[in-house]
Write a structure and sequence with these properties.
55% helix; mainly alpha; single chain
Length: 55
């Protein structure tokens, strides 16, 4: 049986790996407090709320 590879217009796995690798490289030597500040800043930059968090 021969499998054919189709070119995907959007590869979610590839994008997720790229995002994960970028975050990992940005945070690899951070302390826990630095990591918390990093996450807080990213949430504020994107105007994102944590699940269960109200305005």
């Amino acid at each position: 049986m021969e499998t054919t590879k189709k070119e995907k217009p959007f590869d979610a796995v590839k994008i997720m790996r790229e995002i994960r690798d970028k975050i990992s490289s940005e945070t690899q030597n951070m302390t826990f407090d630095q990591l918390k500040a990093y996450i807080k800043q990213k949430l504020e930059d994107n105007k994102t709320k944590l699940v269960g968090q109200q305005e």
